[in-house]
Design goal:
8 helices; seven-stranded mixed β-sheet
Length: 292
C-alpha cells in the first residue's frame, strides 16, 4: 500500500485528491486506486483539517509536518498560498520522499529555482502544478496540433479563469491553469509575451517562433475554449474541467511513485512560474518581456 500525506487543508484540492484515494467510486463501489491511500493530513486551519479528515476517512491528523516522516511514502503540498510550497517541500525532498507540489508551484522565480535545485541535488522525485494540463480536452487539442490535421499553425486563442487581484498572490493563483494548458497544447517554446489589462481581464500575447497565441485570463467565465488556426483549417474546442481532471493528475503522481520516472522535466515544472512572472513584469512596464 502506498501511503500519502497531505500538507494544506485550506484548498478544495485536498478534499478532491483525498476522496479519489479513500472513498470508493459511487457507481462501481470500487476504489479508484486500490493500492493507494491518503493516510495523514496536516493543515493550518484546524476545522478544515478535521472536516477533510472526517469526510475522506483519513486516519491521522498530525500536529507538524515532521511527524509525517516515516509514516508516509509520499506527500502532496496543497496550500493555497504558493509562498508556502518551497519551505514545506524541501524537508521531504532532503529526506528522499517524493513530492507533489500543487499549483502554483511557487510564486517567485527564486523559490522555483531553489525548490528544483534541491530536488536535483538530492535526486528526489517531484512533480505537480495544475492538473488541467492532463484533462481529456486539453490532450485532445494537443493531438490535433501534433497530428498535422490543421496544418501549419498560424495563430491560437485560449481562455480560462484568472484573477490579477486574487488575495492568493494575484495571477499566480489561477494563472497556472491556462499557462500549463497553453504549454501542453502549443508547446513550451514561448519566446516573448506582451500583456495588457482591460477592466478585470488580462490579455496576454504569447509569441512562438512563427505564430502567436492569445491568452484570455477572464475573472468571470462560464465556458473555456481553445481556437487553433492552421493553414489547412481552424479548430475550436471547448475545455471542460471536472473530477476526472483531478483523477488524471493523481494518476500521473501515482505513476511516478511506482516507476520512479517524473512525468515532467524540471525545466518544464519551472516554466509556469517564469511565464507568470513575465506576465506581471509586462503589466508593470507596459513592454514586451523576452523569456529565457
Amino acid at each position: 500500500m502506498i501511503r500519502i500525506g497531505i500538507l494544506g487543508s485550506d484548498s478544495s484540492h485536498a478534499l478532491a485528491f483525498a476522496k479519489l484515494c479513500n472513498i470508493p467510486d459511487s457507481d462501481t463501489g470500487e476504489y479508484n486506486f486500490p493500492d493507494v491511500r491518503i493516510t495523514a493530513i496536516y493543515g493550518h486551519d484546524e476545522k478544515e483539517t478535521e472536516k477533510t479528515a472526517f469526510q475522506c476517512k483519513i486516519e491521522e491528523i498530525v500536529s507538524s509536518p515532521e511527524e509525517l516522516v516515516g509514516k508516509v511514502d509520499a506527500v502532496m503540498i496543497l496550500f493555497r498560498d504558493g509562498n508556502l510550497h518551497t519551505p514545506y517541500a524541501i524537508p521531504f525532498i532532503k529526506a528522499g520522499i517524493p513530492v507533489w507540489v500543487d499549483k502554483p508551484l511557487t510564486v517567485t522565480v527564486e523559490d522555483t529555482r531553489t525548490l528544483l535545485m534541491e530536488a536535483e541535488k538530492y535526486n528526489s522525485l517531484i512533480t505537480g502544478g495544475s492538473t488541467c494540463k492532463y484533462s481529456y480536452d486539453v490532450l485532445e487539442l494537443s493531438k490535433i496540433i501534433n497530428d498535422g490535421s490543421v496544418g501549419k499553425i498560424l495563430s491560437g486563442y485560449i481562455n480560462f479563469p484568472g484573477d490579477i487581484d486574487s488575495p492568493y498572490n494575484g495571477i499566480f493563483f489561477y494563472g497556472p491553469h491556462i499557462v500549463e494548458m497553453l504549454f501542453t497544447i502549443f508547446g513550451y517554446k514561448v519566446k516573448s509575451l506582451t500583456t495588457i489589462k482591460r477592466n478585470s481581464n488580462i490579455l496576454c500575447v504569447a509569441d512562438y517562433d512563427t505564430y502567436s497565441v492569445v491568452l484570455d485570463f477572464t475573472k468571470d467565465l462560464d465556458h473555456s475554449f481553445c481556437v487553433i488556426h492552421g493553414d489547412k483549417k481552424s479548430h475550436v474546442g471547448e475545455i471542460k474541467i471536472d473530477s476526472s481532471t483531478y483523477k488524471a493528475g493523481l494518476e500521473k503522481f501515482i505513476e511516478m511513485l511506482k516507476t520512479g520516472i517524473m512525468p515532467l522535466s524540471l525545466d518544464k515544472l519551472a516554466a509556469s512560474t517564469q511565464f507568470l512572472a513575465a506576465v506581471n513584469e509586462s503589466l508593470e512596464t507596459g513592454k514586451t518581456v523576452y523569456l529565457d
